[in-house]
UniProtKB/TrEMBL annotation:
Primary localisation category: membrane
Gene3D superfamilies for the chain: Rieske [2Fe-2S] iron-sulphur domain
Membrane topology: Multi-pass membrane protein
PANTHER family, per the entry: CYTOCHROME B-C1 COMPLEX SUBUNIT RIESKE, MITOCHONDRIAL
Record InterPro entries: QcrA_N, Rieske_2Fe-2S, Rieske_2Fe-2S_sf, Rieske_Fe-S_prot
GO cellular component: plasma membrane
Region (Disordered) location: 1-32
Protein name stated in the entry: Cytochrome bc1 complex Rieske iron-sulfur subunit
Cross-referenced PROSITE patterns: RIESKE
Task performed by this protein: Iron-sulfur subunit of the cytochrome bc1 complex, an essential component of the respiratory electron transport chain required for ATP synthesis. The bc1 complex catalyzes the oxidation of menaquinol and the reduction of cytochrome c in the respiratory chain. The bc1 complex operates through a Q-cycle mechanism that couples electron transfer to generation of the proton gradient that drives ATP synthesis.
A GO MF term: metal ion binding
Residue intervals passing through the bilayer: 61-82, 102-122, 166-184
Subcellular location field: Cell membrane
């Protein structure tokens, strides 16, 4: 019989040996105790017994770290040397930027060779003697803390850093250089950006020689007449200037990402904000499709309530209130695009956006 901590007895889980047997068993028939099987015999590697094999493995690891350094240098040179508009055609994918491919491959190979070098080092040179540590209380004594430094030093000795300094230097070089691409990327992406740069899209008349820009159906790229837009109808719109980017095959995605517009017609008497009425034509209004929360496409229109809904996080905008936010995490209204009608009856944008489109980390005056 054994006792709980509170003194209440309970029945032992160990069953007495059957007649003629000296082995204790559990109710399930398993042995109550297991003998420690010990460790299997240690198998020595070639580098453990042959100095030539150890030297060969050392050179192989150093070569892998050196290849990592070369790949990182290729990344740094390509970052500055390859023009941003350089492209090439890749079968099955299409036209892609040269700099994206070179930066991606060089950075990938840099990390790959560091990883392979570290694995090869561990497998061939680092100590592989099996060590068993008995379980103990989850606390460290002052003596244990004092011994921590000795453990680190011993680990370096087992890794043969003192005997093979070339590994230490090439690993340090590979890891040091590998950090530089991230520093360049961070510094490059955090460069000075003005509000004017954020506001500029291909709706800007400067993209069309200073002339108003026609509104085009997306993706057909056909112009839209005022008479085409009936009550409650919704058009997904791109500027006529996008055609230039489609023909060149350069920066198309960047241009489309900022220029997407939704065009809707509602009763002019429902529009409560004077600026919104003045920037539309007979109840036809145009707003950026890019949600001011995190940039998803706002493409769902509820005709009865005149609400626009972002499907990503349910931000809701009221068209009658100049697309003010009435629900969800978005903090700013959708920017409105001013539109008019040209002599041929087509809808045109005489101006670009007056505030940046997309996620609203800026302020927008109402």
């Amino acid at each position: 019989m054994n006792e709980h901590e509170n003194g209440a007895p309970h029945e032992s889980t160990v069953v007495a040996p059957a007649s003629g047997s000296g082995e204790l068993t559990t109710p399930g028939g398993l042995p109550a105790r297991f003998e420690n099987p010990g460790l299997p015999p240690h198998v020595y590697r070639a580098s453990d017994v042959d100095p030539a094999a150890g030297k060969r493995a050392e050179r192989q690891v150093a070569a892998l770290f050196t290849l990592s350094m070369i790949a990182t240098v290729v990344f740094l040179v390509a970052y500055f040397a390859i023009p941003d508009d350089s492209v090439f055609f890749f079968p099955g994918i299409g036209t892609i930027k040269t700099i994206n491919v070179v930066l991606g491959l060089s950075l990938g190979f840099s990390l790959f060779f560091i990883g392979i070098g570290a694995v090869h080092w561990a497998k061939t040179l680092m100590s592989d003697h099996e060590i068993v540590e008995e379980r103990h209380l989850l606390r460290s004594s002052d003596v244990d803390r004092a011994q921590a430094v000795d453990v680190v030093v011993e680990g370096g000795r087992n890794a043969q850093l003192d005997r093979r300094p070339i590994l230490k230097y090439t690993l340090g070089g590979a890891l040091g250089l590998f950090a530089l691409p991230f520093a360049f990327q961070v510094v490059g992406s955090l460069g000075p950006v003005t509000i004017e740069e954020l506001k500029h899209t291909i709706w800007d008349p400067s993209e069309n020689g200073g002339k108003p820009i026609r509104l085009m159906r997306d993706p057909e790229m056909t112009p839209i007449k005022l008479s085409d837009v009936t009550q409650g109808s919704v058009f997904h719109v791109m500027p006529e200037t996008l055609q230039k980017y489609l023909d060149d095959g350069k920066h198309v995605l960047e241009a489309k990402a900022k220029a997407a517009v939704i065009l809707i017609r509602l009763d002019p008497n429902l529009i409560k904000v004077k600026k919104a009425r003045d920037w539309g034509v007979d109840g036809v209004v145009a707003y950026s499709k890019i949600c001011t929360h995190v940039g998803c496409a706002v493409g769902l229109y509820e005709q009865q309530t005149h609400h626009l809904l972002c499907p990503c996080h349910q931000s809701t905008f009221d068209l009658t209130e100049d697309c003010a936010v009435i629900f969800g995490p978005a903090k700013r209204p959708l920017p409105q695009l001013k539109i008019t009608v040209d002599d041929a009856g087509y809808l045109v944008a005489p101006e670009g956006f007056h505030e940046p489109v997309g996620p609203s980390f800026w302020e927008r005056a109402r």
